[in-house]
Amino acid sequence: MYYFILLYNTTTYGILPRIGVQMVTITTSKGQIVIPSAIRRKLGIQPGTRIQVDLDENARLIILTPVTREYIHSLRGKFKGKKLLQALAEEKQREKEA
User: Fold this and answer.
1) b/e map of 36-73 (b: 16 or more CB within 10 Å)?
2) Sequence-ordered list of residues with C-beta below 8 angstroms from that of 61, at least 6 positions apart, any chain
3) Who is most buried in 45, 56, 79, 94, counting CB within 10 A?
4) Segments forming the whole domain that contains residue 77
5) Of 15, 18, 23, which is closest to residue 61 (Cα–Cα)?
6) 31-51: pLDDT as tens digits
7) Which pLDDT does position 44 carry in this prediction?
8) Spatial strand order in the sheet of 4-9
9) Are 7 and 39 within 8 A, CB to CB?
10) What is the pTM of this model?
């Protein structure tokens, strides 16, 4: 079973454009991979950058999204008006009562 890995550029919400060369990486015995330096530079991945890992089993894709400061700022207002804080408080209250 094979999976493809997609790296998302969180500033433009699109798939990283091809750099011109296909890059291959190998997993270690611990399941770690090395992201090629050209891709790290293009996406602003620094040592310590958190990477969100998603699996799309239908499309057989592993999706890696760098969680950078820009990514966090891009989420501002995304859930505005959805009353998520109120829903969380109500859920916690139900848990206390149970």
Assistant:
1) eeebbeebebeeeeeeeeeeeeeeeeebbbbebeebee
2) 3, 4, 5, 6, 55
3) 45
4) 4-97
5) 15
6) 888 888 888 888 888 899 988
7) 83
8) 14-15, 4-9, 61-67, 50-56
9) yes
10) 0.54
